[in-house]
Amino acid sequence: MNAHSTTSAAALHMSGVSRSFGNRPALKNVSLNVPSGAFVVLLGAAGAGKTTTLRIAAGLEDTDEGSVLLNGVDADGLQPKDRDVAMIFDNLALYPNKTGYENVSNPLKVRNVPRDAIDQRVHAVAGTLRIGHVLKRLPKTMSGGERQRVALGRALVREPKLFLLDEPLSSLDAMLRVELRTELKRLQQEHGYSFLLATPDFQEALAVADTIVMLVDGEVRQVASPQDIYDAPADRDVARFVGAPEINLIPATACATMSDRRLDLLGASFITAPGFADIDGEFEAGIRPEHIRIEHPNNSAIRAEVLDIEPLGMRSAVTLKASEIQLRATLSAAKAQAFSRGATVGVELALDRVLAFDRSTGRRID
Amino acid sequence: MSDRPLTMPLALVLALAVIVTLFPVFWIVMTAIKPPTDWNAVPAIWVPGEPTLVNFRTLFDPEALGVYGVGGVSEAATQAVFGSLLASIVATALSVGIGLAAAIAISRYSGGGRATPLVILSGRMFPPAAIAVPFVIIFSTIGLIDTYFGLIAIYIAVTLPFSTWMLKSFVDEVPKEVEEAAMIDGMTRVKAHLTVTIPLIKGGLFATTLFIFILNWSEFLFALVLSYTTIETIPVRLAKYVTATAGTLYGVQAALAVLAMIPLVIAGFLIQNHLARGMTFGAVKR
Questions:
Q1: What range defines the domain where residue B12 resides?
Q2: CB distance B186–A139 less than 8 Å?
Q3: CB count in 10 Å sphere of residue A350
Q4: Which domain holds residue A265?
Q5: Which residue from A69, A336, B57, B122 has the highest number of Cβ atoms inside 10 Å of its Cβ?
Q6: Chain B residues within an 8 Å CB radius of A60
């Protein structure tokens, strides 16, 4: 939670922010930090509170509790126009009666930037986003991707202290999405922009973020670097959200024997590495699909039946059943071709990569 | 617009609708140009053999019908035309203005809570006749009877529920994020309403204005009971073209009615282009 120290230079610092709509809490005690020049991603499912967080930062929504600092200045009572932020709305919110050029130039026009300077900026941004051809057109004549990029242009045309991006790449096709997110990352790094980007797409988050803030049901569950959030998720919900195919969760038991510690799962027993030293009793073992290997049945303690093989391109996802529990494993497509549906195989687990979760709280046990 | 061809039965239904709608208009226009002998001739004269403008002249010169031996028209309609224009224009402008502010307040700020729109509409949930008499008494007491101020006040009160509800539906159609984007671009909330939202509901604003104007322009009951001698409107004047000697002056009534139609017909043509829906298309992902 307190992965970042509080510095006054942070582009955005939220602390203890709560917000309810009626009696439905949208945000519960949310604290987060966007250091100046950092790319922070708010990751969470629909309804997790991402949009509300961005709207509070922009001044479009009030807080019930907590404080919001922008560049170290208390933003309480500051109007959106005085916050020096840019925002891309989830639904884009272009001006439907204005051309692409007028949409992109509006923030500068409203702020009385001279016409020449506006023209120069708009064309620079249009070049970056490749929207030169739609500058004279109305939004209704643009494709979804063009509208998305015009909305991006309207945000990027200024150089505000903080960019708030609400699922800015969601309506683009896969190719353009990957291309534009690389472009966003490049722009952010090149200009030292501070980005707070909300997305439900963990791959996008992993690809661009310096820091990921994981929101679940209006709560910040984890603040960590992309690799850490994948390797050491704070709890079961985070582990399930980050990673595809989803992490396998298997009931397991750890107990001390005379000389060693024993780990029981999937009907097999293992003498464990010291990783499970603190656990005594039942817990939930989380095993990522890539940490399951498929072997010849004679060589493994765990046997499983192959239920399904799903090609993912370079790799294949194999659904297995062992001790009445379904498992998903990913392996190279070439290797997967050796098996067929209904075959009996042996399963090897990378025990050192197994994550342990408390059965009731879901927290990860170190 | 569908490209389906107009089939025979459809064409017949359409023709019937057009005839039913336009026949009164045709009859009024014809009557307006008939000399007094043709007004209620039996059998009916559909198109006058000798069209005349004498009925129109009578509106502004009460003696004009004298050439046909018809007298007894006491007053010109000038004051009624002036009164209708004044009351309708001022009341419409204020009703639409206040209604627009209320519509934005309700749509964007849930102004007054969730019940507000219904409370506003409740002002129209009883027949106007039910409040006409109380208003005569109240207005007599406070000296507003027989004044344009009083008539305009009533017109605003009576049309405000319509203007508020109609405009609210148009404001609701503009995504609030478009206004918010303008605020982040650097506008105040009020400026965003004025320069972003209002241009986007232009068509609705025109339609509402025309509708409210028609209501005010054709209002009869309040104008009748709240006017004595100082103020008059066209609908009230229409009812007064009855003489002791010649009975009802149908031709003069028709002439005034034709005159009263002109501003509405012009306004109707003017706003046709603005009535197209879908002004906000392209603003948001759908």
A1: 1-74+241-273
A2: no
A3: 12
A4: 248-365
A5: A336
A6: 180, 183-184
Closest-CA distance of chain B to residue A84, Å: 8
Pair (A148, A22) in one structural domain = yes
Contact A196, A54 (CB under 8 A): yes
Beta-sheet pairing, A315-322 with A355-357: unpaired
- Domain membership of residue B279 (yes or no) is no
Residue B174 CA to residue B151 CA, distance in Å, equals: 34
User: Does one domain contain both B60 and B135?
Assistant: no
pLDDT, one tens digit for every residue, chain B (286 residues): 456 777 889 999 999 999 999 999 999 999 999 998 888 888 888 889 889 999 999 999 888 888 888 877 778 899 999 999 999 999 999 999 999 999 999 999 887 788 888 888 888 888 888 888 999 999 999 999 999 999 999 999 999 999 999 999 999 999 999 999 999 999 999 999 999 999 999 888 988 999 899 999 999 999 999 998 899 999 999 988 888 777 889 999 999 999 999 988 888 887 777 665 555 666 676 5
Residues of B in contact with A141 (CB under 8 A): 282
Domain final residue, candidates A177, A211, A241:
A241
Q: Which amino acid is at B89?
A: I
On whether the CB atoms of residues B14 and B6 are closer than 8 A, the answer is yes
Interface with B, mutate which of A56, A89, A149 (most B CBs under 10 A): A89
Q: CB pairs below 8 Å between A and B: how many?
A: 87
Task: Please check whether residue B225 lies inside any domain of the structure.
Answer: yes
B43 CA: distance to closest CA in chain A (Å): 58
- Domain tally, chain A: 2
**Are B200 and B247 members of one domain?**
no
Cβ separation B282–A87 shorter than 8 A: no
At B170, which CATH number? 1.10.3720.10
Same domain, A134 and A51: yes
Query: For residue A205, how far is the Cα from the chain centroid?
Result: 4
Closest CA to B214 of B274, B161, B263, B275: B263
Which residues are paired to A67 by β-bridges? A15
Let me know whether B86 and B38 are in one domain: no
Q: Chain A closest CA to B170's CA: distance in Å?
A: 15
Interface test with A, best of B114, B178, B184 (most A CBs within 10 A): B184
Tell whether the torsion through CA atoms of A144, A150, A151 and A152 is positive or negative: positive
Query: How many angstroms away from the CA of B178 is the closest CA of chain A?
Result: 5
- Torsions phi, psi for A30 (to 5 deg): -85, 125
A164 and A272 fall within a common domain: no
**3-class DSSP state for residue A93?**
coil
pLDDT digits (tens, 9 = 90+) for A251-279: 998 887 766 778 888 888 888 655 666 77
Q: Are A199 and A209 in contact (CB under 8 A)?
A: no
Q: How far apart are CA A324 and CA A326, in angstroms?
A: 7
Question: Taking a contact as any Cβ pair under 8 Å apart, which residues of chain A between 45 and 74 contact chain B?
Answer: 58, 60
Predicted ipTM of the assembly: 0.85
> Are A49 and A140 within one domain?
yes
Residue of B188, B205, B281, B285 to mutate for A, most A C-beta atoms under 10 A:
B285
Last residue of a domain, one of A241, A259, A282: A241
Domain assignment of residue B278, yes or no: no
